[in-house]
Design goal:
It contains 13 helices and 16 strands. It is an alpha/beta fold and about 450 residues long.
Length: about 450
Amino acid sequence: MSKHDHHPTNATIESQYEEYVMPIWKSLDVPLERATGCTVQDFDGNEYLDVFSGIAVTNAGHRNERVVEAAKDQLDEFVHGCSYVHPNQPVADLAERLSEVTPGDLQKSFFCNSGTEAVEGAIKLARKYTGSKEVLAVEMGFHGRTLGSLALTGNRAYKAGMAPTINDVAHIQPPYGYRCQSCDGGPCTNACATNVERVIDSHTAGDLAAIVVEPVMGEGGIIVPPQGWLAELEAVAHEHDALLIADEVQSGYGRTGSFWAVDHFEAEPDIVTQAKGIANGLPLGAFTASAEVADTFQAGDHLSTFGGNPVACAAALATIAELEDGLIDNAADQGAWLAERLDELEARFDVVGETRGLGLMQGVELVDTSETGPQGVGPAPDSTLAKHVSRNLRERGIVMGVGGFHTNVMRIQPPLSISRTQLERAIDGLEAAIEAER
């Protein structure tokens, strides 16, 4: 059924998905027809406040005017020529901008189409540069679903029926103080970081190429490491002649109130992977490294037909401009207010085990205090309550994500353009939904 035949409804769209789309979609029950700023509208005319941003993608807001105009202008010039066959200005300009905004001396970028591609490309580059093969990742981390990055993803739920993935990957303990035996449920300490050497000694062959880490873990449940944790990983990586790869696919582009999540910590990664918020919804990914590391790649070592699409790169340049013109500052300001308000929820409700995050990347962990959590640490995760709270929020006209290793964390990741009034509405709704469903 074409939308030009007559106006579709939510039911007709969902029916088409059921019949023609592979059964992997996980509906929030909000089919999308139009979106502007922080508001989305379904095919039945219902409007919702979006505090999930399509999984932390539309950082500059839905249909941001500056981004849309940049994409339209490039569409009038040309759409594709393969950026690695036909050098063009949007790609060149974006690569230069990334050398300016990425941490440390990162200078050269490779452009692809998604976060999982960026992670896989970064692993290839690290292996080529170091001459080593083994990779460390973090338990509960998420780095993508293609077979290479899936090996790094530390969650069996994503791997069931998909093995084997690539070899030579081991996992270290996450900085998850709330459910950490080493930290006894308190604030996470660097005990989690010192555990890395034990894993290297026990589970590798002494051929380490990289340690891959999300500076703030997204799918794992918005887990923020303690100060010193990333610096310790950087030191360990370099002691083993390996590289530190910061996966900023979800946490980058202003999400945490700084351009990069790693900016909050005293560490400088050797490679940064990017996607999601980079082009405000257009498909684009990248990984950026120092010239010394990047120049290890020779012609033909890596390529992407659609990588660095000029329309997406033009949108990315406009996105960066929007972020630097006030959206990152807004994320920091609103995030500070949000953290205080979530602390109040934690104090009020026993079912709110912990609230945590940076900027506009915040999580609310819902628990069942009548049962003990995994390994006897903390109360049991309550994924059922999270599901019910999410549904209750939709009935109130609010879209909020659910995630975490135990699928019990409410994820608050709105467009960075969100106003205080909109954010207050979202948290008032969350409070009411928890009260109604607990």
